[in-house]
Amino acid sequence: MANAEEIARAADARDIRDRWLLSAPALVIILLAATGPLFVMLAYSFMLKGDYGDVQFGTFSLDGWTSVLFQRDIFDDTLGLADAHLSIFWRSISLSFYTTVLTLLFGFPTAYFIATRPPKTREVWVFLVTIPFWTNLLIRTFAMQQVIRNEGLVNTALMALGIIKQPLQIMNTDAAILLGMIYIYLPLMVLPIYASMEKLDFRLVEAGYDLYAGRWQVLRRIIFPLIKPGVIAGSILVFIPSLGAYVIPRVLGGGKNMMLGNLIELQFGAGRNWPLGAAISITLMVLVMIALLFYVRNASGSEGAHG
Amino acid sequence: MAKRPFDIQAQPGFGFMALLTFFALYLPIAALVAYSFNAADSLSRWDGVSLRWFISAWHNSAVQDASIRSLVLAVSAAALSTIAATMAALATTRTRPYPGLTFKYAFINQPLMVPEIVTGVALLIVFSRIKVWTGYSGLGYLIAAHTAFCIPFAYLPIRARLESMDLTLERAAADLYATPWKAFRFVTLPLLRPAIIAGFMLAFVISLDDVVITEFVKSGGQDTLPTYMLGQLRRETSPEINAIATVFLALSVVLVTTFYFVNRRKP
Q1: Interval A11-48: pLDDT, tens
Q2: What superfamily does domain A82-306 belong to in CATH?
Q3: For chain B, what is the domain count?
Q4: Cross-strand partners of A72
Q5: Which of A21, A30, A237 to mutate against chain B (most B CBs within 10 Å)?
Q6: Which of residues 110-129 of A touch B (CB under 8 A)?
Q7: B206: domain range?
Q8: Handedness of CA A168, B40, A254, A292 (dihedral sign)
Q9: pTM of the entire structure?
Q10: ipTM confidence
């Protein structure tokens, strides 16, 4: 005869099995249409490229990976650094960095402003940040184009005021990509900073002033350390999608100012080098993972320091 | 007395920076909307207010096709992902930790961790081969891809709601001889309804907005509204694109506002 403990254990096992069955549809869909293909791509990055795109199935080659950073000289077949790729890596990383810094520069005061409004109007301000956040990325990129194109708002206004005679060429430059990314990712910086700012206890600020701190000291020594988790979260939320940006550089940067996303697309399109495209994709993924790990380590560290 | 009291919350210049930010957030959108009412043939001139580009977009058969496809895709993906996410949320909440639970969390959120362009080309690799093998190149691929990346979004509000519910009501139902299915149908599901609606709407908006993954997964002639617009942006744009964008924008604002109010009305 089974005792009570065994019955309980059997019930537990049944419960766990039911829970696996219940979560199976979600897991299977994600496996088939998201995670699984990533592993197939990893395999593709180690194959020889096909002549018309695709790969030569079943072959093994490291060409895809070496050509991420190196290229063979067409005359003497020696390996040299692929300057074009390096400059695209550099553009992606530096533009993402500038985007993060500049969204922080504007996002921090904005979050502070919202958090210091009376509770009722506060909701309205948050809502005003949320609307652009949920608006289609392509539409916002296109909206930015309306502002910076040669006959756009900025140039029309500057020419009407007589400040410039010729329209400024902003479109199809790195500056256009940067402006677009700042514009599009700004809400991602404001919202998490606001979330930690909302919980800020202003009695601590008052205490700071009582102890003769100036405004700057209060900001730097009291407010900033307390909302650091929000700042880190915001920076990661801006940096990661910036690194993988594809639509913004394509629309605002023109064909020449590529970022990693566009370089990847090129390999699967006109470049016809799928293994290289797969290898760059995985490199991009690894860069994102590094940023995420950095976040996880810092976020837990700073919470521990204040907890 | 004339001196204002010391405001401990004030920081010099912050208000200015914030208002500048809000101005900058809305100026481009305002320009986009304004130009959609432009009567001129191109975006370089302003010839007064007119609805001609809205009318021309409405009669453009490519736009009609893309809009219908976008809606079919978004409804299917949102429905499928909400069902899968609801089941997954039921399976991963209100339990003691069991082997594989952390794995499930990570796996369900995986689509959020990878840049869209990477998922896009990975799907291109796999689906292009399946297309050759099976000869099928219908909307199924897009529905599968959209369902997968919508699941984490639908899962989010449903899991949050379930975690704030305990099992007492379901136990009470069981005491009154309800079968597990009846308990779910008449107790859990009604309590979960606001979260399921929120999850569905979130998934719907995410699917409707997607450009990158769709761009890589779609077969020829399977443009959705965003990929159609992306294709048009390569050329000299006419205010028709502005008109389409304005309608799309209005739709998003309505959806977000509804979502906001549905979510705020806590039962």
Answers
A1: 889 989 999 999 999 999 999 999 999 999 999 999 99
A2: MetI-like (1.10.3720.10)
A3: 1
A4: A79
A5: A30
A6: 110, 112-114, 116, 125, 127-129
A7: 52-264
A8: positive
A9: 0.91
A10: 0.91
